[in-house]
Amino acid sequence: MNILLRLALFFAGAGHYGSYFLAYIFETIFFMIFVAVVLIFTIYLFRKYMARLQLRYGPNRVGKFGSLQLIADALKLMGKESILPSGRDDFAFRVAPLVVFIGLFVGFAIIPYGSIYWIGSLTITHSNVSLLLIFGALAIMPIGEIVAGASSKNKYAVLGALRGVAKDISFEIPMMLSVIALVMMASDRTANGLNLEDLTTVQFIPYGIPEVIGLFVFFIAMIARAAYSPFDLGESDSELVSGYSTEYSGMRFGMFYMGLFGSIFLGSMLVSVLYLGGYNGPFSSYAGFIYLLIKTFILVLVAFLVWLSIPRIRIDKFVNMGWKYLLPIAVINLIISGVLTLGLGI
User: Fold this and answer.
1) Of the candidate ranges 95-109, 174-188, 245-259, 299-313, the one whose mean pLDDT is the lowest
2) Residue 198 C-alpha from the chain's centroid
């Protein structure tokens, strides 16, 4: 049983169609609350983690251990005047932050979450091509960033958007080649290699062990794709006045900021599903969701550690890194995976 059926049974008194209508409504509400909590907690975790590593205080005044600081920040952003640049493409300028957020929500909706105690499976989307769907969702977010930069009528914003495109292309291709190698290995055990649930279920041992090169390439590409330091000079405030978001203020800027942290959590969750067994573990039919969260938070902390400990890389250097190093490594990994799967039957 999954959460939708559980909710439909709870509203059984409303009739067949009424119960499912209410179940879909409440499932969507629960999902939106989950994503909001994830975003708030990830930002809070980053600030406390950064404070600990850099010997700073971090949030410690608003609420116990500064736990309400983000709510105070959100209220401050919502209270700020939303300044709109003259000469902007109005509709595109206003809708760009929403596009980023929609891509993030759709991505979270496709992840297989596993089960939790009596509720059952928390997975929302059941599709045989969910792997393709999630990469399609991830491709929506850069569109919002490009639209933001192009609609601002600001040369720095346009330059930031163009640099972001160059960065995305140079890292997306190695990322996709790594996933193709993974699907190739899984094809020996499942006919639905593009189904994220099947990819997770068939992992007798986590694919991160035989696919350690692919895991390395995918994780680095994921960090770069999310525009985190050391790969953030595409939108660096020291060079390009905050890149594509230069002209955004108030809550519109806050949406880009939350999208940044949401993308690292979503990417870490995807790495957990693809390479670390996702929700697999002892008694996973009752605690699979817990295993997925633990693996995801470990990867988020590793990504934050990379962010906080490595100096920024010049844009031409990290674009070269994508094309000249990660791409050949991804091709070699693809060949090795072919030999392991077709030659040795592993």
Assistant:
1) 245-259
2) 20
Q: Give the tens place of pLDDT for each residue, 275-305.
A: 998 898 888 888 889 999 999 999 999 998 9
pLDDT tens digit string along 50-80? 898 888 888 888 888 888 888 888 888 888 8
Cβ-contact 331, 178 below 8 angstroms: no
The pTM of the full predicted model, rounded to 2 decimals, is 0.90
Question: H/E/C letters for each residue in the chain?
Answer: CEHHHHHHHHCHHHCHHHHHHHHHHHHHHHHHHHHHHHHHHHHHHHHHHHHHHCCCCCCCCCCHHHCCHHHHHHHHHHHCCCCCCCCCCHHHHHHHHHHHHHHHHHHHHHCCCCEEHHHEECCCCCCCCHHHHHHHHHHHHHHHHHHHHHHCCCHHHHHHHHHHHHHHHHHHHHHHHHHHHHHHHHCCCCCCCCCHHHHHHCCCCCCCCCCHHHHHHHHHHHHHHCCCCCCCCCCCHHHHCCHHHCCCCHHHHHHHHHHHHHHHHHHHHHHHHHHCCCCCCCCHHHHHHHHHHHHHHHHHHHHHHHHHHCCCCCHHHHHHHHHHHHHHHHHHHHHHHHHHHHHCCC
